[in-house]
Input
Amino acid sequence: MTDNLPEPIHEDRVWSDERWMARVIKNEDDDGWAVSMTLHCESEPALVGPWTMGRDKKNPKPLDVTAFHTLVKTANEILRRHEQQLHAQLHRNVTVTVDGRRIRVAMAIVPDEEGATASLVAKDAFGEPLARVSVSPTFTLNARSALAWVESGFARPQ
Output
């Protein structure tokens, strides 16, 4: 392995590759076990879920390659859903019809620790930009507000 990549671990309670680490941990709430999946660059796990008891009904079932790959797939899916949710929160769009023309109005929010910013963009049916204005990140984009903006001649909404 190179200096930048961690060595793989293949133990009963810890399993890792160059991207993910699975750890079987004692469940704090009861007698059972849990498994956590953490990206190597992150401090918090992306996934924590129940883990199966072993045959002795006392210790956890050991991790293996099949279980690890299933956990990686599940953790990647959770990250993908979080990214989609964040994208949906920061990017909205509606289409309105004005004078027989379909106009797509999109709002994009750019988060920032100093203060988020946002913009409205109007495009025609061919994707050609018609207007762009800055708006408050708290601006509510819906069919009514988009139509009002277009009908105002793309004046900056208050």
